[in-house]
Amino acid sequence: MRSPWCLTWRTAAAEDDALSAVFQEAIAPGITGLHPDLVRPLWQPQAPTQPEASVDWCGVGITTYTPVDYPQYHQLDINDGLQSRLERIDVHTMFFGPDSTGNASRFRDGLSS
Q: Can you say whether the dihedral through the CA atoms of 42, 95, 23, 108 is positive or negative?
C-alpha cells in the first residue's frame, strides 16, 4: 500500500483546502476516533453551529506553510529518479468537549508513534 505522504510524479501535492482535509482525515477517525463531522476547519466563512458542551469535537487549521527552496533529486537506477522537497507545515488543533484533554493526548501520542 502506498503511503498517503508519498506522491507519484503524476500526482499533484495537496494545497490549501485539500491539504487541510488531509489533516482533518488523519485526526478523525485515524488518530482520535472522533467522527469526521466533528473535526472541522478552524476558519470558515460561515461557521456551523457549535456542538453541545457534552460532545467531543476538534478544530484544525494550517497556520504556516514553509517550503524549502531546493528540491532534491535521487537517482534510483539508469531510467528512474525521484524528486523530493521538504516542507514545514504548522497545524493548529483545538479540542473541545468532556474528553478534550484525552483526545489532545491521543492526537499528540498518535503523531509521535
A: positive
Taking the C-alpha atoms of residue 51 and residue 69, their distance in angstroms, rounded to an integer, is: 41
List the grid coordinates of 18.
485539500
Query: Residue 111 corresponds to which cell in the numbers above?
Result: 503523531
What type of residue is 30?
Answer: G
The structure's pTM equals 0.69
With contact defined as beta carbons under 8 Å apart, do 32 and 110 qualify? Answer: yes
Name the grid cell of 4: 498517503
Residue 5: the pLDDT is 45
Supply the pLDDT for residue 15.
62
Peptide bond into 29 cis (omega under 30): yes
Cα(97)–Cα(89) distance, integer angstroms: 26
CA dist., res. 70 & res. 27, Å (int): 30
Q: Are 7 and 13 in contact (CB under 8 A)?
A: yes
